[in-house]
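TL;DR need structure tokens for one chain.
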Amino acid sequence: MTSIPLRDVLSVLDDFFPQGSAQSWDRVGLVSGDPEQPIRRIHAAVDPTLAVIHEARDAGADLIITHHPLLLRGVHSVATTSAKGAAVTSLVVGDVALYVAHTNADVAEPGVNTALAAACGLTSTEPLTIEEGRPMGRVGDLDEPVSLADFAARLAQALPSAPAGIRVAGPLDGVVRRVALLGGAGDGLIGAAAAAGADVYVTSDLRHHPALEAREEAATTGGTPFLVDAGHWATESLWLGEMLQRLGESLEAAGHDVVGLETHVSTICTDPWSFTVGARPDLGDPQ
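>> reply
TL;DR here they are.
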């Protein structure tokens, strides 16, 4: 079976997602594994949860590539009495390497946000804003204007299904042409979306007060941007398949035999919500 040294896989990944392009607080790169170990099967997921790690081990994966870090904050024990400790132990005992591309994958082109832009129907975009010298989010125009209801429905079809679905703030017949977006938690950039002239801002994890205040402010300035909370896991999952395809192509271009190299995107939805009850879509936009 084909095997490629992990160091060669890391070289390609670090070229795709330079660690220096990650935000200063982030923790990216190789988390577990030996650069000399052979890689035959690669698993990709948004989150390095225990379920994802077990899925990868059961599939015989040698490497897991995730978006979110396993060890973002200080950890003082890796005993299996904690979820983090059990995850680290499972990786080490299973001889599975873990590589993280987080905010460096957010700003990459192609990367997390360009994949989300494509799901929104955008073919050409530019950075939404700049933070720490790095482009954050994307903004661009649809080929033709659509209603907010149709835009949200099309986006729902393009995204993987999650229990919490998509939340929308705005009138069903609101007109959408200019779209701003940020995969993952993004209520901190609502102002940037408004400044960019966006008709709608697609992101996730929108909190009550920032979202409500933004909609009230929009009511005094033309009603936009409308807000679409499409879920953290869903908005950050789309880039994984494209990344694995590019990885294989780059390894082949570097002279590696990739015929037997296996890649797989996790089928596990790591959205923390399980189900919703009592949604009231008939209430409409508060403004």
